[in-house]
Protein 1
Amino acid sequence: MLCGEGLFVPLAVDCDLFQEPFHREVAQRKGVKGPSSLDPEVLSVFVPPFVTKEDSQPAAVNCMTLGKNRKRSFRKKRERPRVELGKGVPGGPRGPDPEDVSIPNGVDLLALPQLCFPGGLCVASEPREDCVHFLVLTDVCGNRTYGVVAQYYRPLHDEYCFYNGKTHWEALGPGGSAAGCFVPFAVCVVSRFPYYNALKDCLSCLLTHLKFCKDFEVDNHIKDFAVKLSLIPSPPPGPLHLIFNMKPLQIVFPSRADPESPLIDLDLHLPLLCFRPEKVLQILTCLLTEQRIVFFSSSWALLTLVAECFMAYLHPLQWQHTFVPILSGQMLDFLMAPTSFLMGCHLDHFEEVSKEADGLILINIDNGNITYSNDEEVDVPDIPLLAAQTFIQRVQSLQLHHELDLAHLCTSTDVNEGRASRRAWQQQLNGQIQQLTLQLLVSIFREVKNHLNYEHRVFNSEEFLKTRALGDQQFYKQVLDTYMFHAFLKARLSRRMDAFAQMDLHTQSEEDRINGMLLSPRRPTIEKMASRKSLAPHAAHRRMVVSMPNLHDIAVPELPPRNSSLRKIQTTECGSSRAVLDVPPKSTYTFKIPEIHFPLVAQCVQAFYADCVAQLSKAMGSLAPENSVLLARYFYLRGLVQLMQGQLLGALLDFQSLYKTDVRVFPADLVQTTVESLSTPERTQAECMPELRRLISEVMDRPVDAPKADDRVKNFELPRKHMQLDDFVKRVQESGIVKDSGVIHRLFEALTVGHQKQIDPETFKDFYNCWKEAEAEAQEVSLPLSVMEQLDKNECVYKLSRSVKTNHGVGKIAMTQKRLFLLTEGRPGYVEISTFRNIEDVRSTMATFLLLRIPMLKIKMASKKEVFEANLKTECDLWHLMVKEMWAGRKLADDHKDPQYVQQALTHVLLMDAVVGTLQSPGAIYAASKLSYFDRMKNEMPMAVPKTTSETLKHKINPSAGETAPRAVDALLYTPGHLDPAEKVEDAHPKLWCALDEGKVIVFDASSWTIHQHCFRVGTSRLNCMVMAEQSQVWVGSEDSVIYIINVHSMSCNKQLTDHRSSITGLAVQDGVQAPSTVYSCSADGMVLAWNASSLRVTSRFQVPSGGLLAIRLHDGRLWCCTGDSILVVNMNGSPCQELKIDGSFKETGTSFLGFQLMPEQEQLWVACAGYPDVYVWSLQDLAQPPQRIHLQDCSEINCMIRVKKQIWVGATGLSQGRLKGKIYVMDAERRTVEKELVAHADTVKTLCSAEDRYVLSGAGREEGKIAIWKVE
């Protein structure tokens, strides 16, 4: 019997594939009947390359030459060969070294025959149906290869048969005869990719030839089959599938959806046909808790397919343990392994396994039952109830039967047409099932992120478990201890934007989106409290104790609508995050592989490669430039084919094009190997090509052994030794209580008042417990519906006093982020005390009652004559501190239009409460007063916001919310909303793009000032400039000389322009009326490039003679370039027209131009100079005339300037009330005077941008790190 093995794909998606021999081997197994046993025997193995230029000997290896020592050698680890000359696939001058390519890694010829005939061998008296089953082979490193085995029967001729010209059949015995006997054969193809359906179809086509050919012809048929497979490239991740003609069928090789997704080439609904949804959930629980699992079935094929389906259901979580979906009868002892595993056995072994092994989960695929070995009860918890109920409802809504969709259609008379229809239906169903299982995982693990500390890579498992419903805790306790969950945590802490993170983002509610900006609410909002009441009769109570960083309030709704939004788009309220996500099927495309011509000689193979290149080039020529996703796949495939042809420079050019189309599929390792293999003439030629020069330098500069980042996950533990300030800051951040370093410094001062400046472990433990107890108590607050109706839906109860006597009756005083109210006792009622904005005075006094002096809190309101009084007794001093701090925070928030002050005040208040509970000493109130930061600021440094500033300022947002310290805002871009029917409504909102340091970009929804897209990276360097092109692209210029292009619809950055050699300093867009827009980019070395925004090709380039470009502007069909020493006006081809040089008065101080703005209507050129507090205005009619100088009062230096209507806004650093502040000067262009002087930020103003000429947005330096929104008059 023969077995074929092969590492599928000579042209693979993986970056390292070109470094490996293109293993594809096909061999055939034949059952041999001997006197005592029937054992499978390897007859031949076929591996590529089948023919080389030097040697055309066949690659078939006779089984008689495969001795035991040779077989063992196949299992040894081999080093990967390098690309070198003269060896490879036939006809190619270059290719991988064919040395030692007999058997692929991880394939053992000793064990493989058993797996090809897992049920044993038997000679049949009559022919049997052909059948297929599937294998998963794992090497010692855990790398998997996949096998597809086709079994078929051939009639046995009398006495013997010839195979490959040699006798291979022994006499059946004395008087034996072969007449009427049918012998089993098997053909196995082994691939590095799980192409189950595709290879099953291929083998089905092969069997149509093998069953009727002569024995001596079998070898040639299998070899031809192997050659075809060895020449088919594996498609890169994305929407492009490959079609190959394997007569009589058209075979489709699908691609992965994206680089992070698994390859799915099987029917994912098979488990849903075999098991009820409840059983599917039970099996998923067994996998998530890493049990010892055994599948059973009478169908060998179903064992692997069902097991692989469950692996796909877990994505992006991955099974970390042994995975052997098929065990032959001789391998049953594997089930005695003590560790977790997933294995599969034939149903005939069910009773034997059930009795002999302990602690196994036995899953019968045939009848859909789940039992335990030895009738023992294995501790398998239930999946969380709410997630389970939602999953079952979604599964029941699926259409699992293709026949129902075909009932109204005529029967297709074309077999390939019918298969295509079935494949399209299956692809859509697979997508629905993947979305459904992914939603299940997101609903189970969504709140894990609330208990992560990203800076120190800490997960607070204890606090997370406290937030789980009582009935779900056993499930989570077991899951949290698994290798699978640990790997999941690593991905979360690395902020990997995988399928889980994307689904989490897309299914979050509007409230979750707001809270995402603020990290996490510490308390349930009134809206959640009300929903909890409505669900109380139907669901178990969940105690939510979320304790992540700084408290933040949803303050935008408190502002007038016109202040909180640039443009409002009315939308209907979306469903909850538990609703079924309606994901339209993704478009897929196909590319047909050319026919392969025989005989197998170098000329035929080269002709095949040439046909591939020609057809790929033709397909690329018919594509629109904006279809970059599909274009990238064609570039990738053509590059691989050119590598096989030996056209290395052509291949590198195609791979270089991936930067401009989809950098996600760029094969970095393959490119490096190719560059290293270039000959000296080729290297010289490549260095002369601008497109390849940078690519080669980057490849050669890559560190050989880059240090691996520490990705360990730590579980939060209370400290065991005394802590100095730095260690205390780290511990508090790890605990998830507070992240802001400044607040933690104040907390350290409070806890060490009157003591040595260190904190002992007991004090920290007491503080931590006080904080958590206060959180838990607030979570348990249950307000009557009549009370909740009086509050805003986003309000949270942060503090509740004991029952006290007040001048409005007896009750408890409650504090939210907005107000104080009394929750009256007896018949629960609501009495509003005051909003913090309405407080006029707060005092703590002593009231005399008989001989007692009782502490009393008095609150005077601006709108009422009556003073609220409460006998708070021992709580009075603490409430006095807390109310004053909230009052001060509210006033600062109103003055500065910055709701962050209220959030910080809330943090101070809750920390005060925890400090008093921790210290429990007479000095506790004094210690807590160290956290009265805003109250002290109001009393000691009363600085009123200037009236002009207050009237012009509309709002402030903080892109550094949740960070340990503020980050500088390096660049801002506003993009208007566009109502595209293909987009979600929220995606059509206007957006604010904010570039922070280290290549971070945060996107705000400019209709609500909430975060639309959490921080993602575009490189790791500072970002200098941003523009929008074609209404769908945001171009970002970086210090690392790369232009990154973000797709505004998918919010992904998959394109990079790498033609510059120095820091990108400016971008300008020339919108085309009918033609695509042109984007001009400039770099610090003086290079200017013009780009076609659609094709991303450079249409022209020129060098500015003086170099040092700082900025460019488009005006009147010309480019204005600021070089520091001059402002140069050039034509679009780079020829100079006019130049404005710094005159002698400037040169005396060694200054340079900093930036400029053009005012076409007024024919003015406004210029700022480095180190000067002045703005200079030239007339465009005559630049030779001296400029008018406009001095900016109390200005130290200018940083940026923009044009808005007939105004120039200048961002600067200047003095205000004796301190350096970030200031904005608003200047009238016609009168050339300063209209307004705005005190914008506590730090310098680094960047300005305009929003539809209605608003101006300013970004501050790293001391403040906030964005201010200003109204344009």
Note: DSSP finds 34 helices and 56 strands in the chain.
Protein 2
Amino acid sequence: MWRRRLTCLFGGEEKRVDSRTIHAGRGSSPVADAFPQQKFCDNRIVSSKYTIWNFLPKNLFEQFRRIANFYFLIIFLVQVIVDTPTSPVTSGLPLFFVITVTAIKQGYEDWLRHKADNEVNKYPVTVLEDGKRVGKESEKIKVGDVVEVLEDETFPCDLVLLQSSRDDDTCFVTTASLDGESNHKTHYTVPDTVKDVESLHATIECEQPQPDLYKFVGRMHIRRDGQETAVRSLGPENLLLKGATLKNTKKIYGVAVYTGMETKMALNYQGKSQKRSVVEKSINAFLIVYLCLLVSKAFVCTTLKYVWQNQHGQDEPWYNPKTQQERDTNLYLKMFTDFLSFMVLFNFIIPVSMYVTVEMQKFLGSFFITWDKDFFDPEVQEGALVNTSDLNEELGQVEYIFTDKTGTLTENNMEFIECCIDGFQYKNHKFLTETDGLCETDGPITITLNKAPEELEELFLRALCLCHTVQVKESQPVDEIDGVVLDQVDGFSPSPEDQCAFIASSPDEVALVKGAMTHGFTFIGSDSKSMKIRNRDNRVEVYELLHVLNFDPVRRRMSVIVKSESGEVLLFCKGADSSIFPRVRKEEVDRIRVHVERDAKEGYRTLCVAYKRLGNEDFARVDAELREARLSLHDREEKLMAVYNQVETDMILIGATAVEDRLQDRAAETMEALQGAGMKVWVLTGDKMETAKSTCYACRLFQRGTELLELTVGALGEGEGKREERLLELLLEYHKRVVHDTPPSKTGLHRTWSSPGQDYGLIVDGATLSLLLNASPDGTGSHYKNLFLKICQSCTSVLCCRMAPLQKAQIVRMVKSSKGSPITLSVGDGANDVSMILEAHVGIGIKGKEGRQAVRNSDYAIPKLKHLKKLLLVHGHLYYVRIAHLVQYFFYKNLCFILPQFLYQFYCGYSQLPLYDAAYLTMYNICFTSMPILAYSLFEQHISIDTLLDHAALYREVAKNAMLRWGPFFYWTMLGVFHGLLFFFGVYCVFSNPALLPSGQVFGNWTFGTIVFTILVFTVTIKLALDTRHWTWINHFVIWGSLAFYILFSFFWGGITWPFLEQQRLYFVFINMLSSMSAWLAIMLLIVLSLLPDVLLVALRRPRGRNTRQVRRRLPSSGTSTIFMLSQTASGHSFSWSD
């Protein structure tokens, strides 16, 4: 680590170089002398935060950055240095407890990160050195090493593919941990590399590391003995990324180009920072107010003390003469010392024990999420997991949800639903049966025996079997392909060679091939030059594969050029309707458009299929142009695009397909509930726009009436300068339409479908986002971003497709740092989602099929997306209400506690004499009043769980930190002031005649303080009992038990002579106090008067709003004894109302 940092510090020269030069195999090469030697980082991955050496100072520094911890440290030091009325133990012990517990917790979490890093860095790999296979640890790989990777292994660094065990010089990888796509992607070896990589002499020039997963530019100089050096271009199809997994390929060899923290995966990783909840920020704000109160009280008492002592005879009364040392003490130093003493005396207004209670509440409360049986999923045999208990209440404040698509919203399992051929719709999988097939025509759904011509049907099926990048892996048992039982169509039983699994870069391609197979045409397999299919007559057809025109998001289509056995050259093309329709005859479009629009409304993924016959001269011209474009080193993509657009014209439209991407169970219901709760849902995915758009429709994020606005490469057009101009035009147009011309929503957050206005949805892709975020730095960049953000915030839902992991984090950061600092939540299931999970205020990991990187880096993990509904609407809502009440209650009860102490100074000559005994000062927050509020903050349910689930709008009532705003804070503060004044002056009136016993015995100042303290303890405890809506046996035990403990403690503390005490101020004080009827009357009367406003407020206040009335009807009546059940029931959390 130190070597890497020193390299970054002193080796800055490399950062100024635009490209890097790598010598393959690290052996001597005749061309090596032509390039300067460069230094690169090693292959170690570091995600941990601390080391053994910096843990203690770094952790202490981070903890004492919190205002409360720093304040308590100062108070503790003052108590140690200055002679104060209270012991240093009262502040030191709670502070030590909080610091120690937090340090242990954070140290354990970082140890887990160290452990995960070691698993990756110590992973065994095989490297070729001097022609020999050498075993190494992954962290010892260096740039230029030739690495061997076997099937199902993960690539240890970013590699350029040199050699593959497959005959067609390709390999297949899955990048689920990078971009969330679990489908197989095809990568190609560099052309003209020798089969024996041990004798390879080559040099690679490529760009410096950058985080874009889909871009890579370079060239490779290959030298052969006795031949001229060959130069071959390198692109993303040649680059194997760290974190991806090798599939359906026994072995590959690749040369390391990026290692360690310079790999694309590491560059897309966001370091895990400590997250702070909005409640903690509110506590700090309230703390500043109470600190100001504390300083003001200390300043007022100090000032009045010296004003009073300046009066004649008050500075040095005859009964308390000063010592010579006191007379010689500097006046200002003495004033400062007195100020500090008053600060310590009034220090208890700052609730030191609140932080301990909050930590305990968060830690213990997190177990309720883990224990909730509703979160248990039988498929993964696991329940919810809490990685960070500090953010429980943040679950109740979410305003924006950023969700991944693949594996989160969907199961990534597409199914062929139907198709349309020449205007005839084929449904219910009754495609081509012995009864001529069941078809449906346009208009009403009626069964008819009419169908498309047989020649056109077979041509359509051949197009489905040939126009794809699907590969076959012979690994499945007989009669099963990829887990799907094969149908016997037209008496055809699949032969053993057909027993195989399909793998492809897109799940819809597999679905289409399976659909064709089910209906009589089976794709058998392919190699680099041919493709084989079995037709309905059980005859194998072989086609020569001439060219593949790959899919890209601009064209939104793909094509293949094949030659049949008869020598006919055919181009088959499939793609989005918006991409295919302009390139076919207009008279053919109308017959297909009806079906495409109807399927799209149903949320299906639709593709149109077309073909074209190429003559020999046409093909020769196209072939030459394609080969020339693919060998180009500059503007390769633009040249290929021009050829693609030229050849994909004047096609004949055959039909269309409809494929369904299965949603997660109850995904649509969950999304609808979350939007009803006032949360805005953004979908951030690396998938194609068409697939993601259909998923948004299926999840009800986009409705039929939603007007979609596009900010995509296709909408911007071509040309860099024109794109920026077009982008600004679209932003201004959308801003005017969505922001200016749309009336503001009255409720602010909830979906606009409840209002008569138009709903808008925005679609943006990764390329356009890069243009937005990296716009020219002349001031227009921030203008673009502000316009974009306002448009997004005014839309019902936003879809961001073709996003790199780092772009996902940038989107989250942009919203998080916008005006109002809205609370964000990110949910995903793959390593590609880790960056946005770490960036958001709350990160949720789904225990899906894409590994556990998201789960490990998340704050909370759930098995399925459907569990997010209860996690937010129930747990989040209740946690926030509980902890908000806890915070307000702590400030209130401590103000009640210390205000009589402040008032008492006016009657004791500002002598810093405490009103309460030292034992009461120490145990008030620790024993007498801490357990009832802790139980309340764990078990309170002001609204039943079923009601919270049924009425998602209730979530909005506590949104935007509603219970911890300044209004409720000042209400609790005024209530504390009222109670404190009533306690002190009420008892003061009783003591107008201190002879409260029949014997005439006079009560003193300690009895006065004890009566005040007794009223205080009973009032704040009964106040909490009145606020409790959900009683459990635990609440009864701690509330009444705390009061009983106070009485017993006071009896024993004042009724026994304790030998370790130098002076026992409360000896028999409490017992004598209870022997006075006046004291009893004063205690009961003042308690009733203190709580009377609360009772009247609850009795006279009427519920406001429809939701409140509904909740009131669902709550138990006031006369019902509600018992909180912690039992093993099917209700999951087992929170239930019982009589």
Note: The mean pLDDT is 78.
Protein 3
Amino acid sequence: MASNTMAGGLVAGSYARNQLHVLHGDEDGRPPTRESTTNKICRICGDEIGFKDNGLLFVACYECGYPVCKACYEYERSEGNQSCPQCHTRYKRHKGCPRVVGDEEDNFDDDFEDEFQLKTEQRDCNQHQIHTNGAAIPSVAGSVEGKDFEGEKETYNNEEWKERVEKWKTRQEKRGLVTKADDGGNDQDDDDYLIAEARQPLWRKVPIPSSLINPYRIVIVIRLIILCFFFHFRILTPAYDAYPLWIISVICEIWFGLSWILDQFPKWFPINRETYLDRLSLRFEREGEPNRLLPVDVFVSTVDPLKEPPIITANTVLSILAVDYPVEKVTCYVSDDGASMLLFDTLAETAEFARRWVPFCHTYSIEPRTPEFYFSEKIDYLKDKVQPTFVKDRRAMKREYEEFKVRINALVAKAQKKPEEGWVMQDGTPWPGNNTRDHPGMIQVYLGSEGALDVEGKELPRLVYVSREKRPGYQHHKKAGAMNALVRVSAVLTNAPFMLNLDCDHYINNSKAMKEAMCFLMDPQIGKKLCYVQFPQRFDGIDRHDRYANRNVVFFDINMKGLDGIQGPVYVGTGCVFNRQALYGYDPPVSEKRPKMTCDCWPKWCCCCCGSSRKKSKAKKKGFKAMLGLGGLYSKKKMMGKHYTRRSSETAFDLEEIEEGLEGYDELEKSSLMSQKNFEKRFGMSPVFITSTLMEDGGLPEGTNPGSLIKEAIHVISCGYEEKTEWGKEIGWIYGSVTEDILTGFKMHCRGWRSVYCSPKRPCFKGSAPINLSDRLHQVLRWALGSVEIFLSRHCPLWYGYGGKLKLLERLAYINTIVYPFTSIALIAYCTLPAVCLLTGKFIVPTLNNLASIWFMALFLSIIVTGVLELRWSGVSIEDWWRNEQFWVIGGVSAHLFAVFQGLLKVLAGVDTNFTVTAKAADDAEFGELYLFKWTTLLIPPTTLIILNMVGVVAGVSDAINNGYGSWGPLFGKLFFAFWVIVHLYPFLKGLMGRQNRTPTIVVLWSILLASIFSLVWVRIDPFLPKQTGPILKQCGVEC
């Protein structure tokens, strides 16, 4: 990777109009070099496998041939599970390797010779005598478990035996297997320990203790059985006096039961994972050697800096530039989808401030490396800081940050009013993005160019501003389109094999976040099969009680850990490190299969007639590829009904040269390779970008011209580049929903990729979340709308991808993510039933007998026990769990319901409706936004439900008082039902009242109006008068 591959000034251009302008700065760059190796490497430690004494390649497992070096093989036999990682066959002892428990007793004399490195001069087949230094040793019998061998002790005296052991140690020292016990022995022992430690796994799976998970699974099965008996009772015991209410309640309960199954069973195999960053450093960051950690491109997306404060985006960028990772391997790309000069100038100020902030972070190892949150932390910042200059430097840095904030706020104030002639840059050039809907593509490199060093003269990570081209009449696909543009421009300019995706308000809270991800992505066993590493989302600025479940603790600490035990967590839109090859739509690499067992019981002619033709055809193809030098470049892959290619990490070839090399061969052989036209149809008309896709380990080809890279980068972010390609369909972020994250992760898992959930003790990323009621509901509305769009699309998990490699429980989880908004219909009906029952005097359940009461009690107990056991193994607090249950009802009867109807109108009728949110000022300083009220139509349904149930409770109690003692028994079930609704909606009611218990008049009027109309429709009698039972009396007309 080069420190400079791009132009130093803002480059704006349009490929369709053949325009390319450098508005300021000059072009300068140097191409990177890329080294490749052809030696076979160990899949455990990454080192070369090496050869045996006879010159043959060392093979640890004779069953499957899984590549493992001798050091890892010996460690696995002595300290590990003594079996092959791939086929799980027990390792057999190789000649010259120490014995372990369980080794076979065969050829023991050969083993003894190899263990002590003795030269055999003569061997008698009967006596098995070994002659060494003129002395004969009879055959030896030994104890394998104790590793102590017994022979005829009178053969050697003590001095002779010590001399023999010393000679053996000398030979072992020459081979590097043991260390000398001299003065430098301790240092050598430490080095050997570090080398052995580096060969250890980079992570481990921490299963949930069986004492916690087994009772949880047992209760789930019991609850499922109870649920079946409960439905059996409910269906076969109708309430004839309230038949419509009974039908509605049964349908709702069945839907709730199915929703519970979809949510519960993907949590059957929860796991935790633990990483070892010290081992990662020992393996890839050895002193005196080049750093072997792979590069990472970081994507930050933003749209409108007036709605997304520039100071927040600047803090996110600063945390990326100060990350604990090799600076030459980090590049930060900021996508400005609003073509705002405010963000452009903000990044310029941020780049200048980073020259002082980054060395300060590295010198004193501070956390977090976001100045806004670091300086606002109420902790002892002198803890663990022993440098005498720290206090002085911290004060100076804080003063500089305050000045930096003043400059950013001045830019924001200036941007509030746009000049009539448009914005003008500092050099007098008109800003290319004055028309946000019609402007060319723009690229600006702030850091990473020549001379862009910090105040200590050290290199800084690259910072690149990107604004894709926009023209009227083109579909730009919002955030998903912007992310795909970043994928292409980063592939052209830096082409790191991994990409970190962050929202502009999510900063890096743990400077070792990238290394945490590398523990999985650079793992020799599973790294190539991972599409992404997902981190949990944590948030700042949320009130202590988390009234509206903004933290989503239940989802991130329970559901995601459950999915991690199946095929991996879903992609949640931010805090995710991607494997670039997975985003290109390729299948994961196929594991090396064990060779089939063969026997000599069948005649040779049988084998020839069965498999000779296939072998010949394979040999012919291999020979053809070898002639072209493309043996490792292409391998045919079948994926989702189409044939795509998988490229190797060796060399990138010019596509035209490949086409020319095919001349002279028949059509059948040509069809085995993907032609240039198919490449362009898939990836677009960019040879540079297509070449980058052939480089699995990233990097740029040798001899790259920086000027041509800039021109090509402008080309790949042009608005018409994706036309007639598979971008957004099979490649990159998938289009078709406002929640593009769910679709993108779902497509990867369908191809067979795995994902990993990484949740370190110190959160790697933190962000901001809307904490007031209206904004929270609006956020949930957007998520639910995206799920409805996926449900109504061809990518619905109910029917998509059954020919792929998606696991069943993983599919259930994806089905749950797209059907949960439809639960709102059943939920709002079920929350209305208590009020109806109280107002009409009827109930959805007939008189209960003893058996029915048992099933009801068993169901409630199983629900409670399931929740308690779930909290035990997950560590989630009961308050977080209860807040999640409450907001499930609040969001279900408001945002989810609106999302269902809005999604149906948008997909089926083409009507795109938006729910506007208008703000009202807040009163409080701390958590003032919590009490900020914003009127929205989402508030009407839950308010109406609260009023209805309160009216129903008053009416039911009054009716029981008038009718006497006998009517209190049936009333308790109805009251419990109504209070269940009111308790779940209590946080909504509290948020509705605000800080000063003031509720907007319009909400009260609408809710009372709807509640009154509903009550008048259902109430046919006066509930405040006693009911008359008996004959109907009429006036007879006779005056008595």
Note: DSSP finds 32 helices and 23 strands in the chain.
